[in-house]
Amino acid sequence: MTLLVLGIVVFLGIHLLPTFPHVREGLVRRLGIAGYRAVFSVLSLAGFALLVWGFASAPVIQVWSPPAWTRWVAIVLMLPAFILLVAAYVPGRIKAAVKHPFLVSIKTWALAHLIANGDLASIILFGSFLAYAVYDRIAIKGRQPTALVETPGSGPSRNDVIAVVLGVVLYVVFLVWLHPLLIGRAVLPH
Fold first, then answer.
1. Is 70 exceeded by the pLDDT of residue 92?
2. Which end of the chain is more exposed for a tag (fewer CB within 10 A), N or C?
3. E strand or H helix that includes residue 107
4. How many other CB atoms sit within 10 Å of the CB of residue 28?
5. Angle (nearest 5°) at CA 101 between 18 and 87
6. Domain residue spans in the chain?
7. Is pLDDT of 22 > 80?
8. Distance between CA atoms of 164 and 44, rounded to whole angstroms?
9. Whole-angstrom Cα distance, residue 50 to residue 5?
10. 186 by DSSP, 3-state: which?
């Protein structure tokens, strides 16, 4: 459990830096934009590796036993999570309307997994990401856009079609093949 918590602290800690503009700007002045991005990337990858390793090796301590139907709630919630994930990188009306689709995707992903999983490691992992995404969305309202932060914009409506189609494809691929392969747990019942 220690590796999981350490990974979450490193990964989410580095992602919280933008919510402290004076700290971020000081680091950019010292390291330059390229240096800041390099350090940010390395620490993000290290934190991610730690939290994946920590989650995989965490003991299963059941806090509550979710009813079987919660698995289906999570399966349904993950479809918009994948569409919003793609929409975050494809400027279109979805991105303009949602404003921060990546954070909404994280919140939806975390909530879906909190609903369907009752073990302590899941509660810590998904609860931390949900809290982070809620905090970051609130913090964004008070931040000024910088060269490091892209402001949401609108694009052609075909980009929304691309976001939906790619989101659905990623959803199906992850649901059927990648979740069992990467996470070690099949989503769909046999």
1. yes
2. C
3. helix 101-116
4. 17
5. 120
6. 1-58, 60-190
7. yes
8. 28
9. 9
10. coil
